[in-house]
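S1.2 Input.
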Amino acid sequence: MGLLAAIGVLLPFPFYWWLWTNAQSWVNLCGRERDPSTVMARVSHVLKAAQLLSLFSVASLSWPPPLYFWPLMAFGQFLNFRVYQLLGEAGTYYGVRFGKNIPWVTEFPFGVIRDPQYVGSIMSLLACLSWVPFQYILLWSLGYVFMMFLESKEDPNARAKSIS
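S1.3 Output.
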């Protein structure tokens, strides 16, 4: 396994862990002028780009993809899109942890699939198995599993108090 590619694949997870466990510090760091969810989204997009570049660095692309690619990628991305559509940026990027009032959502996929955005992301990664070595897909997926576990143990008392 290429060490740099492995580091790139894992890069966002320490950031997500730190935000989840130190929400008030992040809110304070962002200050009154910057929305903590928006700043998190921007940083996350940069980290996601690094993850994707890491995968491309070890990938062997070929066309056409295997048949399993299409349903896994399509449904995985549908779940990601749907979660973002229902929760918005603040709901997707830890808004509740940062002291925002995010309404509870019960529409599909919530209430049917536990952690639908993580499930969708893992499905999308699995779709790429014909191009990317298994160990990188596994490593990235384990990062999501770690975050699902961490977020399932949420302590509401650890939520940040909004400074706005």
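S1.4 Remarks. The mean pLDDT is 94.
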